[in-house]
Amino acid sequence: MRDALLGLAHLDWDLATSATPSEVRRLFRRTVPVGVEFGTIGVLDRDGRMHEVTTFRHDVRTDGRHAVVEFGASLDEDLARRDFTINAIAYDPIARRLHDPFSGQVDLAQGLVRAVGDAEARMREDRLRALRAIRFAARFDFAIDQDTWQAIVSSAPFLTRLSPERVKQELEKSMEQVRRPSVALARWRDSGAFASLVPALGTVSDEVLRAVDALPLPVLPARPLRKSLRFAALLSDLDGREAERTLRGLRFSNQEIAVISSLVERWARHGDALRRKLAVGEMPTAAELRRLSADIGRLRVSAFVRLASARWQTGEPPVQSAGIRALYRQFVVTAFREPIEVSDLAIDGDDLRRAGVPPGPLIGRTLQRLLDAVLEDPGCNTRDALLSLVADSPSARG
Question: Which residues of 128-157 are buried (b: 16+ CB within 10 A; e: fewer)?
Answer without folding.
Answer: bbbbbbbbbbbbbebebbeebbebbebbbe
